[in-house]
Specification:
13 helices; 7-stranded mixed beta sheet; disordered N terminus
Length: about 425
């Protein structure tokens, strides 16, 4: 493919957009018109005059196809058309939605991270909601028996340990095994520029890493679905029939401010852009902002008092973090809330210097990666995708040495990725 050649004015516009993206403010931004105001005669107008439009918002491309079909939807609070949840909007547009499948945090986003979600009936629509985050992690034959097709419409953030791609893969398997079509309403990857980090060592496969991709995989969910099919990653190497509604006017370099927070603890654009780097601190004896209203943008510990001036105090916050590490204790460390995320975009890399810095500053290095100290600490090996990263930080290896150890797998992944791209 030939690269785009941008004129200076366009480059200036993109730079301004990235600056806006980096603000540590709640989500919002430009939104498309309310679907209830879309006229029937407008459904035949495919042009969007150059503005980015999500797959879900292009109702003219799929609503007619859904008419007369029994539809199930895999959705959460990010599944919006205009200002409304896609379930609510499509139901009002006459789509026969029979079932809703909800992932981690629940269909309407009111469950904390890691908390099992029960089946229910959605009070707003009366539609049955089947949880895929509890005893059941995959739709059963019985769940799909009265459906003609499933729709997958959830925002992802382009990171291996963000679990939505795991849900997608299991849904693809269920559809393939039961002869059902899966329609994907694709959405931009806010970290689409990022293809970096260790490729997962599959002996470390877990709920926070199921596929051999780097930390930042550089894919939209539809591109990941094509890769999962093409690389034979689904159980039994089954092939899922996909019907993809692509994002209009999008490239992997396009800045995208999410209109809705993708999960309770990714509640600002700053947190989303820092997440590929700062979520690694879930594998350390440091609080990474859980128990505050700015998770993934601050990192610290009581043990760093006197070393760092900045401080914060984690507290129990229902729906976000009920039992954060170092609850009600003053933590000292890094404040990244105003960090210029343009630096991350320009480098195209996961930031590992913060991990190197905080390990070096830690007065009790034996505790730093000890997951036995708290149930709030995850495995750094599983998060990084390799056992080498922990050992390299402890040994004081340079960033260059650490990055060289990610090869040749990272470069091989980048080549393989190109086969499945839908966007430049």
């Amino acid at each position: 493919m030939k690269p785009y050649r941008f004129v200076p004015a366009m480059l200036m516009l993109m730079a301004a957009s990235f600056t806006m993206c980096a603000q540590n403010v709640p989500f919002g931004g430009n939104r498309v018109p309310d679907p209830r105001k879309i006229r029937a005669e407008d459904l035949d107008k495919p042009k969007h005059k150059g503005r980015l439009v999500t797959g879900a918002d292009q109702t003219e491309k799929y609503v007619p196809y859904l008419k007369g079909k029994r539809v199930g939807m895999v959705v959460n609070l990010t599944s919006v058309i205009g200002h409304k949840l896609s379930v609510d909007s499509l139901k009002k547009m006459g789509v026969n939605i029979v079932k809703i499948f909800g992932p981690e945090h629940g269909f309407r986003g009111n469950a904390s991270a890691g908390v099992n979600v029960a089946d229910a009936v959605d009070p707003s629509t009366g539609i049955q909601v089947i949880s895929l985050y509890g005893p059941k992690i995959k739709p059963t034959r019985e769940d799909l028996a009265d459906l003609d097709l499933l729709i997958y419409d959830m925002q992802d953030v382009g990171v291996r340990f963000y679990t939505n791609i795991n849900v997608l893969a299991r849904v693809m398997e269920a559809c393939a095994e039961n002869g059902k079509e899966l329609m994907i309403l694709d959405r931009p990857n806010p970290n689409g520029y990022l293809v970096d980090g260790p490729v997962l060592d599959m002996k470390l496969k877990s709920g926070i890493g199921m596929f051999p991709v780097p930390i930042g995989h550089g894919l939209t969910v539809a591109e990941f679905a094509q890769m999962a099919n093409g690389e034979g990653w689904l159980t039994g190497k089954v092939q899922c029939k996909l019907n993809i509604i692509r994002v209009a006017n999008y490239t992997h370099q396009t800045p995208y401010v999410l209109p809705v927070k993708p999960s309770p603890n990714l509640n600002t654009q700053q947190s989303v852009l820092l997440y590929p780097s700062t979520c690694l601190f879930e594998g350390t004896y440091l609080n990474h902002g859980r128990g505050t209203y700015y998770p993934f943008t601050v990192i610290g510990s009581p043990e760093l008092k006197g070393i760092y001036a900045f401080s914060f105090t984690p507290a129990s916050i229902p729906g976000m973090s009920e039992t954060p590490l170092f609850q009600d204790k003053v933590c000292y460390g890094l404040d990244l809330r105003k960090y210029n995320t343009d630096k991350l975009v320009k480098s195209g890399k996961v930031n590992i210097s913060w991990m190197m810095e905080l390990y070096k500053a830690s007065p009790y290095k034996g505790k730093f990666f000890d997951s036995k100290l708290s149930k709030e600490i995850n495995s750094i090996d599983r998060l990084a995708g390799t056992e080498d990263f922990r050992a390299q930080i402890i040994a004081g290896k340079s960033e260059e040495e650490i990055r060289l150890s990610w090869e040749p797998q990272l470069s091989q992944y980048k080549i393989m990725r190109k086969k499945y791209l839908l966007y430049l």
